[in-house]
Amino acid sequence: MTTGQKIYECRKNAGLTQEELAEKLGVSRQAVSKWESDAAFPETEKILELCKMFSISADELLFGTTRVSDQEDFKEKATETKEETREETNGIFIRRVGNMHYEYISKTELFGLPLVHINFGLGMYRAKGIFAFGNVATGLCSFGLLSLGILSFGLLSLGLLAFGSVAVGLLFGAGAVGIGAIAFGGVAIGIMSFGGLSIGYIAVGGASVGQYAMGDWASGFIAVGRSNAIGEHAFRMPEMILELGDYCNENIGGWLGSFIQSVAHTLS
Question: d(Cα 193, Cα 206) in Å, to the nearest integer?
Fold first, then answer.
């Protein structure tokens, strides 16, 4: 049971609404709601008040375990935790070693999200923040096994710019499997793709398929290949490097013509 779930259970057992609990603690109803949904963590003083109000120990509130301890001992430990937090993190700090769980949520928020949220452990722990690090991470910049964000890194990564084993990026994707407008990977799929197996409008790779395909094996409307070239206009390298140059100068031109010739010279 998480801390948020424990607060919810205690509040319900006490017959209190979120508004009533918030009034007793001198906080907003939104703060209580965030605690109960594990989107935020109570400050040390509020933890003390909650323990006293619901007659439970700190271990039971924070970690879901019951241990008999006197209030003075708990206050002393809570003070030590507060000092460590202020000196080392200046934010909300949670560390759970017993169940292999580590979490940190910064006090600073932007757009209603913590600036930094770290949440790792044995299980599907989710981190949500501007900078998010977790088993499952969502944020502007996210790092995790499963990550979603503007800039994302992970085993499975989705975002505007994505990097991972499987990376799906609206603009840029790079990974073992890369998918995006511009894609890099062992398997790359995109408008412009580069990879071992490359599929795209402009494709460059060991095996490439596209409108403009270039690689060791190439198949496309214009195909430039070293081992094999298949297409409406197919050019084998290096034997047909001059014919390709003439074709590009007459029919394509611009940066694309120069790019095709540059790749062709690399293949030759």
Answer: 12
Residue 73 φ then ψ, to 5°: -65, -40
pTM of the model: 0.58
List the pLDDT tens digit at each of the 268 positions of the chain: 788 888 888 888 888 899 889 988 998 989 888 888 888 888 888 888 888 888 888 777 776 654 444 444 444 444 444 443 333 333 455 554 445 778 888 888 888 889 999 988 877 788 999 999 999 999 999 999 999 999 999 999 999 999 999 999 999 999 999 999 999 999 999 999 999 999 999 999 999 999 999 999 999 999 999 999 999 999 999 999 999 999 999 999 899 999 999 999 999 8
136: its two tokens? 């499952």
Cα separation, 268 vs 13, in Å, equals: 77
